[in-house]
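Chain X:
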Amino acid sequence: MTALLWFRRDLRLHDLPALLSAASDSNDVLACFVLDPRLEASSGPRRMQFLGDSLRQLRDELDGRLLVTRGPPEQRIPSIANEIGASSVHISEDFAPFGRRRDERVRAALGQVPLVASGSPYLVSPGRVLKDDGNPFKVYTPFFRRWREHGWRTPARSDRASARWLDPQDLPTRSAEPVDIPDGGVEMTLAAGEAAATRHWKNFVETGLERYSEDRNRPDRQSSRMSAHLKFGTIHPRTMLVDLDLRRAGAQAYLRELGFRDFYAAVLYHWPRSAWWNWNRNFDAIETDTGAEAQRLFELWKAGETGFPIVDAGMRELNQTGFMHNRVRMLTASFLVKDLHLPWQWGARWFLEQLVDGDMASNQHGWQWCAGSGTDASPYFRVFNPTTQGDKFDPDGAYVRRWIPELADVDDVHLKCGDRPPGYPDPIVDHDAERREALRRYQFVGPKSESGSDGNRRSPN
């Protein structure tokens, strides 16, 4: 008896229920990963590099016994299953719209071979935390209370020794031709893979968790930087939760971030249309700019050339590293939708292309929080002032100076007094004027029903 273990967003061997399920089903297990051309085309070079690095470490942990192939999964998975005579195919369940459609196609193509889903990337799988009337939550705070009441399982006791692994080299034919793991030679600031995820998390627990509740909004200070590892499943949040002493303020604050991650996954699960459309349809009426001038401003925003230091620092960090601090994500997003009056979808797409941790649920609903059009969103009348926000959350200017060398030697790094050094651009818009314009456009929408605001939106970062 042979089982096929199909890795996706779970590139690890510890705390992996699907591995235990595969091993309990069969004597031998073949591990595989399918490079889907559709996902490759939509992923930026750094996200592909992180994926490739994670796959290489997983292959090394399995002593080379990982089959990596390329093609539509609905073709590749049934082909491999047929080749090895698999009695079952095992996966961690995917709850995003793309993943659900893909798995439906694979399940249909497998015919009599079952596609067995065990576990998920979340502490509590989407669809399980519901209101008393059986409807999904639309506001985070009551969701969080019910989510904590629901609780979560302890880590699954899996590791490399949990299965007897088949060597892909021993397959009798090559119906699913192995391919090289992608390696674009992109320099990364964050090591990938399960071992790196574990080391990084342990270091953060020792050095950053205690002050997390105070430091989490400071881009110049240490954040956990666990979002990419959670995105690719090189660590499971259950494993992380074991190290959280929930009597401590820092651990409580971090738990709320893990809760936000589960909340946004649940929102996307219940309202899949919200991936690219306003969750609150009232906001479909908002006037946005899309012409040639809008495109020019968009390009300046992407390049970090807006003339607003905290915005430009964030965009340059993103361009150079594939990462951006969560507080700065909010500020740059607010600037795009309320100072430049551009569609939030433009910014969301750019973030997904650039971010190593680009996650559909967290990214899209974070953008809608800033635009005011999502569940539990920022009030439509909140327009962040990039100058005062920069002064508040980067008071010493260390973050701005790191990413904007033109301002490295300027005392007034947030340019509150208006004096600008040579080489740094003038503001591309007048914030006060654009704030008034944003309020004019938004006033016709008004407050939305069945919602509220927690004053923040986050994902572990």
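Chain Y:
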Amino acid sequence: MTMTDSVQSESNQNGSAPQLSLGTAAARNLATTTKSVPQMQGITSRWLLKLLPWVQVSGGAYRVNRRLSYTVGDGRVTFSQTGATFRVIPQELRELQLLRDFDDEDVLAALAGRFVQQDYAPGDVLVTAGSPADQIVLIAHGKVNKIGAGKYGDETVLETLADGDHFTYQAIIEDDDHWEYTVKAVTSCTVLSLSQSSFEDLVAQSEELAAHVARFRDNPAKAQNSHGEAAIEVASGHVGELDLPGTFVDYETSPREYELSVAQTVLRVHSRVSDLYNDPMNQVEQQLRLTIEALRERQEHEVVNNREFGLLANADPKQRIHTRSGPPTPDDMDELLALVWKEPAFFLAHPKAIAAFGRECTKRGIYPNSIDLDGHRVPSWRGVPLFPCSKIPVTDTRTSSIMLMRVGEQTQGVVGLHQIGLPDEYQPGLNVRFMGMNEKAIISYLVSAYYSAAVLVPDALGVLESVQIGLEG
């Protein structure tokens, strides 16, 4: 038997044909591999950073000058909670218009201690229209509807109130006052109430509080427009030689200033890596690219969530509404459009909130149109695009928020703030500075992004809160 016959016999015994050419595994040792640049799952579309108009801020600060507005004290009250028991934080009572300028902490603490907690089930009535209005009601937890009579006698929802909202200070300073609406619980609710008699008892004991309430009653509200701004007197529709009113436009004496915030990191690259391993891709360039992507992601997160300048935290209380039932319905989106009705630019929502809105539309047989934006198909509502933003938080109870905004300086909207022309600038508002090399031959680069955001007037930003997005399943 020849050697060839032996090999064929052995191949036949193993059940495989003999190899007649070079295998791919060995051949790959001589081939050049085509490689992608490093990929990163954390990169998102960052629509907010793309859509905001960015204003050049020289000197690192941006001052927002506004007309003088009179503070009305309509913010939300915060509570402390121990188990199922809620307590009013005394200083938070200054969110009520009646107590806006009252600063006696002992009296505020005494007032806070007189609030009584009550629990209601869904459908329970808290107050009834026409009954004596003899208490202040603070909503510690839950959601209620203020229901009033429509033009033809039917009931209509005037407003939806939830955690931190309240009604109404007039109840305990006006005599023979009656509720003009019914308040009904939508969900299980916990409220804290202060009766008129309890308030009057404390007024009788505190000279400071009595004097404050007397001043509040005696001083009528200053002339102002529907936005709380000092009125500009104008005459119209007259004939003849009428004496025209004199007026002037008053400004805020202490306007808000936004200082640029910063996101920074130190990028470290070993000199051996940067010297030897740069073909076909520059190692420093790729390290820097991914680092900048992470900084930009953090920048968008801060523009949404930062407590000082973030959009969610800086929306005016009057520009915050709650969903009527829980999930985001077309009715809720229309209410949001009614808040930001002057040239609304875009909605911004978590992708799961957009999905929840889509489900609600499908239930009603509504199919919102989409619009084309630079080749992207983007869903819209009433012609206003709805963009996804994963930086809007989703709580443990599966609720989120939806924002609607008007943008740009010319429209008195929301603007992003940055400073261009930085030393060693790599991108607008971002620079990369060489920091040297240490004794371990590690090269360091300081990467910094400077930014902030400003809401020029309150009605430029509206927020739909407590949006239920459903359970994962």
